[in-house]
Amino acid sequence: MSLIPAFEIGVWNAWIFMIWLLIQNFGVMLVSKDLYQKAGEPPGMKPSRKYKILSFISTPLWLLATAYSIFLPFKLGTIWFLIGIIIFLLGLIINVVASINFVRTPMNEPVSRGAYRYSRHPIYTALVLIFLGVSIASASWVFLLLTVLMAVLVSFSVADEESYCLEKYGESYREYMNKTPRWIGLPK
Asked: Cα–Cα distance between 35 and 183 in angstroms, integer?
């Protein structure tokens, strides 16, 4: 990692990894209104002030990281790139599996199958792994800093999301919370 990061537009830049997040996030909105609403708020529930502030910060941060990735060249042919692509692929696999689990679960049930058996937030875990993979594959301390900021914001916002799920699904979500750890690999 260099002190002054490379900043050049190119075909073999980090946007190749980041495009998958754009496809997933916006693809759900385009494919199915029901799926988009499934992730929405229950009627009458207002997001907390903390959740609004975290969303206000994390969305531009995610967009900034995506825009920066267009100008962030990979360190092709280095150990950084190899390690980064392995971490990215792990995150991508978790993301795809968790998204399929989300889609296949009926709207009136909490998602608790597949990747959700091992973590209540596998998509957030995958997001952090994808960002970390990009950071390492490009050997960019700036992108690593964005990754750390994103991970901190995610860790603060999950409590509100879990409150939302308790409101939406009730006792079935509470049972799920009692048997499933918040993060993959960390004990309950």
From this structure: 23
Tell me the three state secondary structure of residue 73.
strand
- Residue of 91 and 12 predicted with greater confidence: 91
Q: What is the radius of gyration, based on Cα positions, of the chain?
A: 17
Nearest-angstrom CA–CA distance, 128 and 122: 10
Supply the pTM of this predicted model: 0.83
Distance from the Cα of residue 14 to its chain's centroid: 16
Backbone angles phi, psi at 125, to 5 degrees: -60, -45
Would you list the domain boundaries of the chain?
47-179
Q: By C-alpha distance, which of 74, 59, 53 is closest to 26?
A: 59
Q: Would you say residue 4 has pLDDT above 70?
A: no
Residue 88 and residue 134 in contact, taking contact as beta carbons nearer than 8 Å: yes
Q: What is the pLDDT of residues 105-131, one digit of tens each?
A: 887 888 899 999 999 999 899 999 999
Q: Could you give the angle at the alpha carbon of 43 between the alpha carbons of 38 and 44, nearest 5°? A: 145
Region of 123 (left: φ > 0; alpha: ψ -120 to 50; beta: rest) is alpha
- Measured distance CA(170)–CA(149) in Å, rounded: 31
Mean pLDDT of 35-63: 70
